[in-house]
Design brief:
about 180 residues; alpha+beta; 8-stranded mixed β-sheet; globular
Length: about 180
C-alpha cells in the first residue's frame, strides 16, 4: 500500500500532483527524530546538520518493496559518483520490535553507505510523524512472520539545515533520482 501524504493540498507547498517526480513538502513535515543508529550511536536531525540526508522508511522483514527501494537508493548513490559523499542516506525502521541495531547492520550490509536507524516504538512514532509516514502493523495469523507492516513508500530529501524539502516516489529510476538530487548537493 502506498500513501502519498505530501500530495494533499494542505501538505504540498507547490500543489504538486501525484505524478510529479519531485514533491515539495510543507512546514507540516518537521523531520524530527531521536533514534539510535545501527552502531548504537544516537541519531537526530541535528547530528547530520551541514549535510543533506536522503531517507527511506521501511522494515527488514519486508518481502519486496523495501529491498527494491533500498536497491534503487544504492544504485542512485552509485550514479552520484563522488557526489554521493555529500549525502547521508538513511533507512529508518518502522518495525522496532524486530529491527534491532544488529538486524539493521546485517540487512544493510550490502551497502555500507546506508545507515540504519531504529529505536523504541514511541521514538519511531515521532519519526513517522515528522515525515507524515503511514505505517501500520497487520497481523498475519497464518504466517510464520506473525505480522507485516503496511507503509507508505517514499524517499525524503532533507536539506543540510535539517528541513524536509522533497519526497520522491520509490518507483523512480535511480538515474532520475540522481539527476534530481545532484543540483541540491
Amino acid at each position: 500500500m502506498m500513501i502519498i501524504a505530501a500530495c494533499s493540498p494542505e501538505v504540498s507547498k507547490k500543489g504538486a500532483s501525484a505524478n510529479a517526480d519531485k514533491i515539495a513538502l510543507s512546514d507540516a513535515f518537521t523531520g524530527a527524530y531521536a533514534l539510535t543508529d545501527m552502531n548504537g550511536v544516537p541519531a537526530t536531525k541535528e547530528r547530520f546538520a551541514g549535510k543533506p540526508v536522503f531517507i527511506y522508511f521501511g522494515f527488514t522483514a519486508c518481502p519486496d518493496v523495501c529491498p527494491a527501494a533500498l536497491g534503487v537508493m544504492s544504485v542512485m548513490l552509485d550514479e552520484l559518483g563522488e557526489d554521493a559523499q555529500k549525502l547521508q542516506p538513511l533507512f529508518i525502521a518502522v518495525d522496532p520490535e524486530r529491527d534491532t541495531p544488529e538486524v539493521l547492520r546485517s540487512y544493510l550490509g550490502f551497502d555500507p553507505r546506508i545507515l540504519g536507524l531504529t529505536g523504541p516504538a514511541p521514538a519511531i512514532e515521532e519519526a513517522k510523524d515528522g515525515f507524515k509516514v503511514y505505517a501500520s502493523r497487520q497481523e498475519l495469523p497464518d504466517s510464520a512472520l506473525g505480522y507485516t507492516i503496511n507503509h507508505s513508500s517514499l524517499f525524503y530529501f532533507v536539506s543540510e539545515t535539517g528541513e524536509p524539502k522533497f519526497a520522491f516516489k520509490d518507483s523512480l529510476p535511480p538515474q532520475t533520482l540522481a539527476a534530481l538530487i545532484r543540483p541540491m548537493l
